[in-house]
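In the present case, backbone shapes were mapped to integers, as reproduced here:
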Amino acid sequence: MLQRHALLTIPILLSVLAAGSAQAQTSARHQVNVSIPSVLRLSLPSTGDASPSQVDVGVHVDVDGASTTVTPGSSRLAILANTSWTLNAHVEGAQNGLGLAYSLDGGSFLRLHSYDHAVTSGAATGGWRDLELAYRADASGLADGGYDVTVVYTLTQP
């Protein structure tokens, strides 16, 4: 009788252990973290130039007496961002008193300097966001001729 009782105890004990094991498996907790990297892209669609952070625009100014002609007269930039961003600009090259200014999307003209300053800023764009930048020059007192500068646009995360 003792042997039969021992044989019955083993299957019951195995059933209890299996049930406890199954219960432990269903109550396990997992933590999943998803990390999405920041995306900042700056593009000059007219040339196909695209960069993570910088685009250069060559600007030529012809001075003929009191008249000035700026080429290109404007540039279209495109920004793609999934986070907040700031577009900065500065001018490089021999300015020789040339007062190059820009206007963002038809707003007031602001002078470009040899150091970075904020042109505009924003939040995630939800796709490509186009910006139109027009140029004009104040060539008062400059000799007739051609003047070349580069406008450098830099996209940063504040």
Q: What stands out?
A: Helices lie at 2-26. The radius of gyration is 33 Å.
